[in-house]
Design brief:
The protein is an alpha+beta fold. It contains ten helices and 20 strands. Helix content is 27%, strand content 28%. The termini are far apart.
Length: 384
Amino acid sequence: MTDQRADDVRRYVQELQGTGHLSDPAWREAFARVPRHFFVPGFFERLPDGKWQAIGPADERYWAQVYSDTTLATQLDGHVSPEPNSWPLRGEATSSSTQPSLMALMLDALQLQGTELVLEIGTGTGYNAALLCYRLGDDHVTTVEVDKTVSDLAARHLVNAGRLPTVIVGDGEHGWPGGAPYDRLIATVSVPRIPAAWIAQVRDGGSIVASLWRDLGGGPLVRLDVAGKTAQGFFLPSYASFMPMRSAGIATRRLGTAVKQTGQSRTATVASSVLHEPDAGLWIALQVPGATALGFTPEDGAEQLWLFADDGSWAVVEDATVRVEQYGPRRLWDDVEAAYDQWTGAGHPARDRLGLTVTETGAHRFWLDAFDNLQWEEQPVPGQ
């Protein structure tokens, strides 16, 4: 490694330490010794017009961004990065190298001693698996990726970096029973519910660190301890944002229909900004499932926030006029305001006071401070 690259790595580790998510010396060493550029030989940078430009090692921007606390898009619409400096491309990012500070937060939440067997869901570039291998040894790490193209590329990256974990192509929702029981499970993709297979494949006393997907965001990152067929624990204090599981195009298409409809209008009691508050936003996102948000500004109007549901319901909030208009069987903004009122009534609790119990039936029970202080419960959806 050249002196310049060594300086890049030192600055990178110092930057991660500055976030407060790299306090464990063992993880500091791992991030310093496992080269990120082995796993991100190229990435896509979004241009002001919404297109993407491929960036490679010959471009100085490459090194500055690879060794920074930045999420990097590594695949567009299922295609890995083409040659650098190719014509700008359109598309949606379908795979990425996760923001390193978020990786450090989740790895630290595993509370490893150094001998555990770990199952990783979502191999991605292979960088996270390599960090686990450095800490635990190759034979202690199994990683599962649903996309064969991504998995094959990650396996090559891992070999180039001298790491040989067990790499599986498969649906991460099913885990990987061949290596069970595991001491820890870490999911670097968001899931709407904690799958029963994950709980079944983690030994009693083991732990799961995962992000729950909610269309309204909230960044729900949770650490659960496994006991038999159940798992229970608290949400972590930091926001965790992974790539969305829904296409933004769905909400855009729904907007085209909604603007032709007329709903019921009233004064809004809560501003749209509550969805972006770190603590209230989590509470609301968990309380109002199945609602997708989209910001929109008409040419002759003020900025708006639209919410859409699968049943055709929608709500549009305009903070400038303090108005909300709603349509369909669900009154989506009524639900948001009710959830916000419940959060304020509970004393504006921080996100890490909120807990989750996953029961034997798959129900998800959300509670505040103690598991017997039940706030609300989501039953499993048949067929899922």
